[in-house]
Please model this.
Amino acid sequence: GDSVTQTEGQVALSEEDFLTIHCNYSASGYPTLFWYVQYPGEGPQLLFRASRDKEKGSSRGFEATYDKGTTSFHLRKASVQESDSAVYYCALSPYITGNTGKLIFGLGTTLQVQP
Amino acid sequence: ETAVFQTPNYHVTQVGNEVSFNCKQTLGHDTMYWYKQDSKKLLKIMFSYNNKQLIVNETVPRRFSPQSSDKAHLNLRIKSVEPEDSAVYLCASSPDWGRSQYFGPGTRLLVL
Model:
């Protein structure tokens, strides 16, 4: 079945460090890929999405590029801030007829940024 | 700005009791969802509901049932709760299948 793999379970950085969270997916065709962020006590919020090969999504300084060749959608940010501390989820929506609209989430990556 | 509302925020109950959670969205979306987030932060779809078509995830126990009065409301009832039902239940909505989903703040359930 379709799946999403996030390599890092936890990431600890200092402010202004460079962030990479790896996301690889397994799905047929061209699924839509998402990054969500979840702050404590809140529901996940959409960061951005991408639907086509080489499409770049970006928001709030975060970015990721859809790469069908490597089946990846890695999240990057050049300079993290303490306020970026949260749980980050990579997710996909399968591209199939009769799609139920469900999102398949990775296990999440907890980012902690020290001042 | 919150546009998906969930009540209650938190609920504590005993094994075997029935509970019901409410969800309302003011985004005008056609599709709504329920997700379960366990203690390890793992998010899994439970149900999706679009124009009176209910899609049930086959891994959801029968004691769980969604209830919808209109496209803006999707409630979740658990008939007889079990300890493993302790989790955060997240409601979401989207304009259509496969589109970006918007989540509520969640209802945290603790079963003693």
Observations:
- The CA atoms of residues 66 and 76 of chain B lie 4 Å apart.
- Chain B touches chain A at residues 4, 31, 33, 40-45, 48, 50, 55, 57, 90, 92, 94, 96-106 (CB under 8 Å).
- The radius of gyration of chain B is 13 Å.
- Chain B has a mean pLDDT of 91.
